[in-house]
Amino acid sequence: MGHILWVEPVFKEMIWGGKQLKEKYGYAIPSDQTGECWAPSAHPNGDNTIKEGEFKGQTLSKVFDEHRELFGNIKDKQFPLLVKIIDACNDLSVQVHPNDEYAGLHENSLGKTECWYVLDCKEDTKMVMGHHAKTKEELVKAIENDDYDQLLNKFDIKKGDFFYIPSGTIHAICKGSLIYEAQQSSDITYRVYDYHRKDKDGNERQLHVKQSIDVTTVPYKPYDLAKQVEETIENGTRKELVSSNYLTLNKYDMTGYNKVKNDKPFQLVSIIEGQGTVEGKEVKKGDHFVIRFYSPLETIGGGIVLEPNGVKRRKRKEINEHDIKKENIEKNIKEDIKENIKKNGNDNAEKNRKEKSVIYKQIEEKYLAAGFFPPLTA
Ligand code: ZN
Fold first, then answer.
1. What band does 329 get if pLDDT is binned at 50, 70 and 90?
2. Would the pLDDT of 245 be above 90?
3. What is the pTM of this model?
4. Among 226, 227, 284, 232, which Cα is nearest to 253's?
5. CA–CA separation, 23 vs 143, rounded Å?
6. How far, in Å, is the centroid of ligand 1 from the Cα of 281?
7. How many angstroms does the Cα of residue 111 sit away from the middle of ligand 1?
8. To which H or E segment does residue 71 belong?
């Protein structure tokens, strides 16, 4: 039983899409207008299939529904996170997403808080993030007057930039960007402005002005990058790009062996640069996988790994309950091993060795029954 769920990405053709997903990551994209790669994803609009192992052929949403123990028994109704790689050959509309409360009430969906890491971009590539209105009235007036040049906060970006985009933040990806996006698993977008672009029939795309005004946070407050933490790890660095109630995103930059700690119910990993091995299996940029419940991960190799950790941080009480439960089960297992050795006699080393695999099997089962994933040594 492996610690990893390897997932097959789903691709989305978009009018603004391109072919970088093929050129940079070697994906078999459906056309030269492919805008998005969804992986890992369990969203109904792009549910990933498990590529190998005991759950091979099943969708990630099905495994999440039927084997919640692999995801730390979290209570969420649906798989909470979604990761995309976005190739914007053209400007995306200026948009805003609702929070959980608004989306639950009006759309029967999760809200959408997201974050972006710039994988690559052309020179002079722009981004829209936030606005300059100081009050809701100013925001409404600017929208009514079509005064988006003044309203929108627009600037140049470069490779490696990071942006945290809480629900309620007006934003737009502009042409020339290749973006890694980690977000709540939601597909609710309110379009504020679409540059008055017309399709071949002369029609503009639908806007959602009322909803946009409802949900936009005024005034805009940029994310404080000073909150980011960077540390040296064995053969590399780890940078925590953001840690919020919705997700934590870590960037691992590694050049050799490491055993990566996992203190979250589960983790979604995307390799965005380089190659190496994970749990003995060769991996390369463009691979995505889910690490099951609290499993540490043995990795070797170079590259950058982006990893949004599973869900909201647990409350202190839950952490304590978890630790106590884990301590108890470890105590029981140690006693089991002791008893076995006693039964066989200390001098019967050969028999003990033979029984070791049986004991390990029992240990594994005990861990699973208690809702924990067995440690790598077992
Ligand atoms: Zn968005």
1. low
2. no
3. 0.80
4. 232
5. 38
6. 34
7. 11
8. none
SS3 content of the chain, % helix, strand, coil (to 5): 25, 35, 40
Residue with tokens 């924990």: 372
Lowest-confidence pick of 98-107, 194-203, 215-224, 325-334: 325-334
User: pLDDT tens across 47-102, in order?
Assistant: 999 999 999 999 999 999 999 888 888 888 889 999 999 999 999 999 999 999 99
CA distance 154 to 162: 15
Where residue 72 falls (left for φ over 0; alpha for ψ -120 to 50; beta otherwise) is left
Which two three-digit tokens encode residue 298? 């043995």
The residue behind tokens 């992986």 is 39
Please check whether residue 265 is in contact with residue 310, taking contact to mean a CB–CB distance below 8 angstroms: yes
pLDDT at 244 (0 to 100): 87
Tokens read off for 375: 């440690």
The pLDDT value given to residue 120: 96
Query: 61 burial class (0-12, 13-18, 19+ CB within 10 angstroms)?
Result: middle
Question: What distance in angstroms lies between residue 118's CA and the mean position of ligand 1's atoms?
Answer: 14
Per-residue pLDDT tens over the stretch 255-278:
888 887 777 788 898 999 888 888
CA–centroid distance, residue 164 to ligand 1 (Å): 11
Q: Considering just the CA atoms, what is the radius of gyration of the chain in Å? A: 24
Three-state secondary structure call for residue 304: strand
Give the Å distance between the CA of 32 and the centre of ligand 1.
Answer: 22
Helix (H) or strand (E) holding 10: strand 10-18
Question: What's the CA-to-centroid distance between 245 and ligand 1, angstroms?
Answer: 18
CB-CB contact of 103 with 111 (8 Å): yes
Residue 367 CA, ligand 1 centroid: distance in Å? 39
**Which tops the pLDDT comparison, 367 or 91?**
91
User: What is the Å distance from ligand 1's center to 95 Cα?
Assistant: 6
Catalytic residues: 191
Return the amino acid letter for 252. Answer: Y
Question: DSSP of 317-340, one letter per residue?
Answer: HHHHHHHHHHHHHHHHHHHHHHHH
180 by Cβ neighbours in 10 Å (0-12 / 13-18 / 19+) ranks as buried
Model pLDDT, residue 75: 83
